[in-house]
Design goal:
It is globular and about 70 Å long. 81% of the residues lie in helices and 0% in strands. The chain is mostly helical. It has one domain (2-130, 170-362): MFS general substrate transporter like domains (Growth Hormone, Chain: A), CATH 1.20.1250. It is a multi-pass membrane protein.
Length: 383
């Protein structure tokens, strides 16, 4: 996951320049090569490259365009469309672990990689069905001005960098705060997903039904994606950010509740809520990006956001694992994992307020301009 998110800023550039279809198909092809080549080696070091790098980067190139392409076709029902698409992955989240366990013990790891590569080959064909409506971004007015202003090699290099790395999204205060809030929240986001099964094995040794937790997480995550998409379409503008605020706050509380569960059934209830929080957070992310920066810059806005999420999301589970090894249990790890989502939710809650203040300021400035124009016209008529 860390590699998928880490490559996202680069993926956004390719999506803007060559389009969603070519980017997604190329990424799926790279991921296919990574999985297939992993089946022909037994060296762990080589698999770091074939599976970790090739498959991770390819999956990133295949994943992000699937979020962007929806904005080409949907506006009023973008949340619902995103929820339906994202909800499909939950079916695999529930079934794939059992499927991999079964075929892994039957045909071995090498052939399992080959079976998975067949899925990626199918994704290549599916990616070719993308038909982007919005054209790949070309040189904008600002880019042409940069070229005219470039007088030497250094300035030309800077102009080319600005052309491909569209940093204008960071000029929007609301986007900066939103991206910072989410990056903060995901520091503890993946901790329960990675360590919950191990925690149950340690605390409830007599229970051998850990698979129930995966089913609960996948089922409620799928439900949350469908429901949040429909609800998000009914909420105007940036007020839909409050769905993310609620999901992060609840996720943080649920992380802190895990050590308090005295029975396995209590952990199941926590997993049901964790799945809902995951569904609400994931589905509403792309519609908010389109609201903040518009459809033409949404690709890079999503890419930069996922890139910012990569480091804290990857760092959270290892930190929790270190705390477990140091203290001998997961109690402190889960308590601390609940803090970043709560802080991130509080940060996100100010984005709609700042947006409203900026709109009011623009309206006041526009009103002043109109008054100045009318006064000028009246003075001209008097003369």
């Amino acid at each position: 996951m860390g590699m998928i998110f880490f490559c996202s800023p680069i993926v956004s550039i390719f999506t803007d320049r060559i389009g969603c279809r070519t980017t997604a198909a190329s990424g799926a092809a790279i991921a296919f090569i990574g999985l297939l080549s992993s089946s022909f080696t037994k060296s762990l070091e080589v698999r770091y490259f074939t599976y970790g790098i090739l498959f991770g980067c390819g999956s990133s190139f295949a994943f992000q365009p699937s979020l962007v392409i929806l904005g080409h076709y949907f506006k009023r029902r973008l949340g619902l469309a995103n929820g339906i698409v994202a909800g499909g992955s939950c079916l695999f989240s529930m079934s794939l672990p059992f499927f991999l366990k079964t075929i892994g013990s039957t045909i071995g790891l090498a052939h399992t990689f080959q079976v998975l590569s067949a899925f990626m080959f199918i994704q290549i064909l599916l990616s070719l069905t993308f038909r982007p409506i919005l054209p790949p971004s070309c040189d904008s007015y600002h880019d042409r001005q940069d070229k005219l202003a470039s007088r030497n090699m250094k300035q030309q290099c800077g102009s080319q960098m600005r052309k491909y790395f569209n940093m204008r999204v960071f000029r929007r205060q609301t986007y900066r705060i939103w991206a910072f809030g989410i990056a903060t929240a995901v520091l503890g986001y993946f901790v329960p997903y990675v360590h919950l099964i191990k925690y149950v094995e340690e605390e409830f040794k007599e229970n051998k039904k850990e698979w129930i937790l995966l089913v609960c997480l996948g089922a409620t995550s799928g439900l949350g994606r469908l429901v949040s998409g429909r609800i998000g379409d009914c909420i105007p503008g940036l007020k839909k950010i409050f769905l993310q605020v609620a999901s992060f706050m609840l996720l943080g509380l649920m992380c802190m509740m895990i050590p308090q569960c005295q029975a396995f059934e209590g952990v199941i209830v926590v997993c049901l809520f964790l799945g809902l929080c995951d569904g609400f957070f994931i589905t509403i992310m792309a519609p908010i990006a389109f609201e903040l920066v518009g459809p033409m810059q949404a690709s890079q806005a999503i890419g930069y956001l996922l890139g910012l999420m990569a480091i804290p999301m990857t760092a959270g589970p290892p930190i929790a694992g270190y705390l477990h090894d140091y203290f001998g249990n997961y109690y402190l790890a889960f308590y601390l994992a609940g803090v970043p989502p709560i802080i991130g939710g509080l940060v996100l809650s100010v984005v709609p307020l700042i947006h409203q203040r900026m709109l009011k300021k623009q309206q006041m400035d526009s009103g002043k301009d109109k008054m100045l124009v009318s006064e000028t016209v009246m003075n001209d008529e008097n003369f």
